[in-house]
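Weekly modeling sync, notes
Attendees: S.R. (lead), two postdocs, one rotation student

Agenda item 3: backlog of single-chain predictions. S.R. asked that every request posted to the team notebook include the full sequence so nobody has to chase files. The rotation student volunteered to paste the first one in as an example of the format we agreed on. Action items at the bottom.

Example entry:
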Amino acid sequence: MGTRAAALTLTAAAATGLGATPAQAAGSYHIIATIGVGGLPDAVAVSPDGSQAYVANSNSNSVSVIDTATDQVIATIHGFCRPDAIAVRPGGSPSYVISYMALGTVSVVSGQ
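Predicted structure, as returned to the notebook:
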């Protein structure tokens, strides 16, 4: 089986966790960018300063790092086993990645 690249669509409001009722969302939220990431993006976390988004790509066993100012993937971190959850410390780095197939472990990722 091949790995198919997927696209992640983010809006500034979604990335910052702003909530809205369905009626508000329908009238005021719009797709502003589509960013190609790895296969089957399962989770996204945003750095505390909002400068980067981290996407757990389950089918490609990687995490994509996105520069939110340019909406470009600036790094891809490999070495996970079906990552499906990600969290970023309040201070930024490191990030914590939970992999579905790596039972009982959490990967700690540091760096820029």
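Discussion: group reviewed the output briefly. Confidence is low (pLDDT under 50) at residues 1-5, 11-18.
Action items: rotation student to repeat for the remaining queue; S.R. to check formatting next week.
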